[in-house]
Amino acid sequence: MDQKVSPDKAPFSSRQTEVLSAVLDLMVEEGDRFSMASVARRASCSKETLYKWFGDRDGLLTATVRWQAAKVAMPPLPEAKLTRAAFAAALGAFAVNWLKVLTGDVSVALNRLAIAHAGSGGSDLGRIVLENGPFEMARRLEPVFVAGRDAGLVEFDKVETAFRSFFGLVVADTQTRALLGDTSRPKQTEIRGWAARAVDQFLQLYGTAPRHAAKPN
Amino acid sequence: MDQKVSPDKAPFSSRQTEVLSAVLDLMVEEGDRFSMASVARRASCSKETLYKWFGDRDGLLTATVRWQAAKVAMPPLPEAKLTRAAFAAALGAFAVNWLKVLTGDVSVALNRLAIAHAGSGGSDLGRIVLENGPFEMARRLEPVFVAGRDAGLVEFDKVETAFRSFFGLVVADTQTRALLGDTSRPKQTEIRGWAARAVDQFLQLYGTAPRHAAKPN
DNA sequence: TTGACACCGTACCGAACGGTACGGTACAGC
DNA sequence: GCTGTACCGTACCGTTCGGTACGGTGTCAA
User: Fold this and answer.
1) Which of A84, A131, A165, B53 sits 20 to 30 Å CA-CA off B192?
2) Where in chain B is the domain with CATH 1.10.357.10?
């Protein structure tokens, strides 16, 4: 017949990615309240093609989420010998990147959609976002933490615990507020400030040797 | 005519609260995908009455959210002289209570609904939840922090910063995961563990005098 | 008893939307 | 040139749902 989107690895054609991009735009603009007709209109394609390619509305949403999730990049982890400065820099880079992604329009829209669908209707969107959001972040962060412990820079028993603390210090209530529509999105400088403080506090909690007492403010 | 729900202080009749309770149940069960007809059926009332009392669907949702928000209780803050133990206990009580509320079925359902509506459609649900959630929590916590500072137990310049750290350490990614449908809801003992650790770490970061070095794990 | 009132249950209406079918067009390979 | 194919645009269908209207019932006050 014709290629439905393969469930796992989906090399979308360029025309298909145009459609997905249109969907993403509509998500940002209208949340979950866009119709298949509006997608077709926006992408200048026919509804029939939409259904042929993606099966149904849920398939289209799922494809869009997967496609977007595959696009988010992460800062590289330091390869060379791990000094305290390099370690802190790596954590800081993660934190900044993460906060930027989290407060971005597309991430907010995507998370809203996934959360709404997690509540009503049995689609997998929630699981997918969860898998590509916090879980993936934990997965990428784990080697950094372990390297830091191996280098004697930090101490912890379970990586999971350290990750929980780091996540909390970095994100705090930022994401929740954004999702609920708090209009005051943080600026770049603010994000950098939060990230720096979070890393500082994390090292204060889990670091080993020369903890430079961060002045509270 | 008849009493629409007054926008601010709304003393609902007992029959009306029965309706709101039914709505809350439906929210937990079906998210946003319940119809006005299903509400009427569940509450054994007529749709006409629903519209007479609450105006439209959005009014019903708003009334439900307000009504539920007014119900959440907070632990009392210690009145007497503030020892370090009493301070830590107060923070711990807040943390435990907060985590319990946040991971509860109704809170998850309500936040999902508010987030979905914050994304699409201009209803006030997001703002209401935001106002009665994190903001209210910050408001209630502020006197505790200030009292702690006045008693010389903690040090910080801006309450906002201390609150951000406390929030992050307590909640971390718990709420996000619950909203996205992570099935593994924390047990009571786990919640108490998180709360205790969070308070401990918070005092480690912002406390002044005898910081008992919490062994990391 | 009678009327006003609040409410329930059901039927009804119009709009929106998911999904399908169909005619028309451009382009591939032969 | 011919045929198949992939696609666009539009019309169409069935259902669902928000919102309204209406008849019937219980209650309370005069």
Assistant:
1) A131
2) 72-206
User: 1.20.1250.20, 1.10.357.10, 2.120.10.80, 1.10.287.90: which CATH number matches B72-206?
Assistant: 1.10.357.10
Interior angle at CA B70, CA B68 and CA B75, nearest 5: 110
Give the mutation candidate from A185, A205, A208, A212 for the B interface (greatest B CB count, under 10 A): A205
What does each C-alpha distance from B55 to A33, B45, B61 come to in angstroms?
22, 15, 10
Query: Which CATH number applies to A14-70?
Result: 1.10.10.60
Total residue count of chain A as it appears in this document: 217
Statement: the CB of B52 is under 7 Å from strand C: yes
pLDDT of residue B118: 95
Residue A55 has pLDDT above 60, yes or no: yes
- Contact between A114 and B180 using a beta-carbon 8 Å cutoff: yes
CATH architecture of A73-206: Orthogonal Bundle (1.10)
The C1' atom of D7 and the CA atom of A62 lie apart, in whole Å, by 23
Report in angstroms the alpha-carbon separations of A20 from A29, B49, B136: 14, 43, 39
Chain B: residue whose CA lies nearest to A137:
B173
Which residues make up the CATH 1.10.10.60 domain(s) of chain B?
Answer: 14-63
The predicted structure's pLDDT at residue A25:
97
B9-54 pLDDT, tens digit each: 457 998 999 999 999 999 999 999 999 999 999 999 999 999 999 9
Pinpoint the residues of chain A covered by CATH 1.10.10.60.
14-70
Domain with CATH 1.10.357.10 in chain A: 73-206
C chain positions with any atom within 7 Å of a protein CB: 6-11, 16-23
Give the CATH superfamily of B14-63.
Homeodomain-like (1.10.10.60)
Q: What is the distance between the alpha carbons of residues B111 and A83, in angstroms, rounded to a whole number? A: 42
User: pLDDT tens, B75-116?
Assistant: 888 777 889 999 999 999 999 999 999 999 999 999 999 999
Interface probe with B: pick from A23, A35, A101, A120, most Cβ of B within 10 Å: A120
Distance from CA(B25) to C1'(C11), angstroms, rounded: 27
